[in-house]
Amino acid sequence: MNTNPRDPYTPFALAACEKALLTLLTKIGAWGNQLVLIGGMTPRYLIGEPPPEIREHVGTTDLDVVVGVTLATEEGEIYRKLQQHLKDAGFAPAESFRWERRVDGVHVLLEFFCPVGDGEPGKLLRNPGGTGSQISAIRTRGAELAGQDYVIVPLRGELLDHGGFQEKVDLRVANFLPFIVLKAFAMNDRDKAKDSYDLVWTLTAYGDGPRSVADTAARSPAINHPEIPHAMRCLREHYQSTKHRGPSQYALFELTQENEDERERLRRFAYGSVQEFLARWKELGLPE
After folding, report:
1. Is the separation of the CB atoms in 287 and 224 below 8 Å?
2. Are residues 52 and 191 in the same domain?
């Protein structure tokens, strides 16, 4: 049976992830200043209310965060505390760099990422600080940009395990430049249709569209980071034409029924959106 990659991304799953995120941030206290949200929920918080002609972002089924604390041995106690906070928030260690908990019947995953450092991209950094903890993070190109350029978003909602008690916390969210860089590398490293959807939705839902995103990214304090030209090359490679990976993945995610005319329209839309962003990027003389 064929399934659409959009199917798991339901309002129910999104609500479960938001409850889990709010509960986690409430439990970890000062650790909230060391974690930055990246990945699939980021567009929702960067954009807020999209223009009326654009459907609301589908959200996510997992929580991706960059660990913002350095990984020196003397900080081992910090990681032991983080592990305890995760358990206090109802999360249990899963395989690899993931923690998990069930929320209203939804399996919510929490995934940790960190800068590459002296390791290899895609490899795990296990047990930072040498503490014997179960904290691991996957070394990710450009992850450090999230700590250099983020926005603080107030998050309010219902806490888990507190009988419907409402809470408000501040959430650090990767800003446009690190989000685009990380999405570009993700598309280069895996075949996941939602990566292209997240990118194209963000480019078209913000301000006056893709040119506005380039203008905002140009003001990033991380604009001269050496990974940025590599990320722009990834975007150019995967959006060379309507038949390349980026537009094809976007159409796969957004297509609700087999219709070749609609598939081609979606491909053209994704291709045009990214090309408009790249054209403005070039006009501004930004690193490429």
Report:
1. yes
2. no
pLDDT at residue 131 tops 70: no
Residue with tokens 């020196």: 72
- At 204-262, the pLDDT tens digits run 999 999 999 999 999 999 999 999 999 999 999 999 999 999 999 999 999 988 899 99
In the predicted model, is pLDDT for residue 74 greater than 50? Answer: no
**91 belongs to a structural domain:** yes
Q: Which of 174, 191, 206 is a domain's end point?
A: 174
Question: Which residue, 149, 174, 199, sits at the end of a domain?
Answer: 174
Is residue 52 located within the same domain as residue 169? yes
Alpha-carbon distances, residue 177 vs 106, 145, 183 (angstroms): 31, 8, 10
Q: What is the pTM of this model?
A: 0.93
CA distances from 208 to 59, 109, 202, 203 (A): 22, 34, 11, 9
Range of the domain at 258: 176-283
Chain mean pLDDT for the chain:
89
Q: Are residues 57 and 151 in the same domain?
A: yes
On whether both 194 and 154 belong to a single domain, the answer is no
Is residue 6 domain-resident? no
Q: Domains in the chain: how many in total?
A: 2
